[in-house]
Amino acid sequence: MSPARTPGARRAPVLGRDAGPVGRAVRVAAGAAALTHLLTTKAPDHGGGALLTAAATAVVLTAGYTGLLLLLRPLLTRGAGHGLAGWPGGALFLLPMLLYPIGVLPDAPALGVALYVEFSVLTAGITGYGGIELAALPALVLGRRPVLYGPFNAVDLAERGMRRPWHATPERTAGWLAAAGLAWFWVVPPLAAVRGAFGDSFDALGVLDPAACGALVIAGVLLAVPAPGPARPRRLRAGAFVLLGLGGAVGALPDVLWPVVILTGLVIGTLRLTSGGHRDARVPATGAPASGAAVPEPPVTSRPHVETSSTTR
């Protein structure tokens, strides 16, 4: 029998559901930067009717994704290794957004899509939701937080190296370097796209892009150094950050993160379906979860992007 949980004890953060302080700060900064670009540079190019259409599009997306989350809820409550939770669900939420980068949407609805995405990023940061940003508003409406992997989880992976007492100085340094490098590519480009002197000042900072790439690569190298704690997750993060740094050097960051989520989600979803991993867990007559079955995600508590950060670069 497991020991009783201490009253008031904090549950461990779950990747794809809970964002830590650094992850929240990066989401807020990225969402605010992208919305600044949209509202000061893109929106003024549209007339009143187009702006109403954009607003309506954002509202429809909110309702649509809320309905989707409600519909998929039974497949999102068994943990990241089952059903659509984790990668497959994140891919499913991102797939409709492919209409944006391929250019089939008229200008006004496309602006609405961008507004929805970036406001969702900001909402995720404010509320501390650490899943796919497109589910942040629906999760807030429904009061449930599904485990759904998305691009911003790269920051959460960087932050993981700062949490445990056994994390050594190289791993903590790697976490800060990786988070700073990722934040740079989410925040600086949309602000540099703002018209006028404000945008020009951020555009001039583009000369520091190689430094941000270098920070990611150095983070990967530091994580490759032997250290206490689980070695496999650290090595996986090391490889990911080196690849992201190289991607930034060729101008693929952060845009490359969205197709990575989609492709990975489709592959993992297919494997789960073909292996029967989507079957429901058996629940004993006592009502206790079966061994290996994940407990349903807890209710939301009250807690103080192709152009982007995700859609506006």
Automatic annotation (TrEMBL):
Segments for region (Disordered): 280-313
Keyword Transmembrane helix: yes
InterPro entries for this protein: DUF6410
Keyword terms, alphabetized: Membrane, Transmembrane, Transmembrane helix
Transmembrane segments: 50-72, 84-103, 115-142, 173-192, 204-224, 236-252
The keyword Transmembrane belongs to this UniProt entry's keyword annotation: yes
Name of the protein in its database record: Integral membrane protein
Organism: Streptomyces hirsutus
Origin organism lineage: Bacteria, Bacillati, Actinomycetota, Actinomycetes, Kitasatosporales
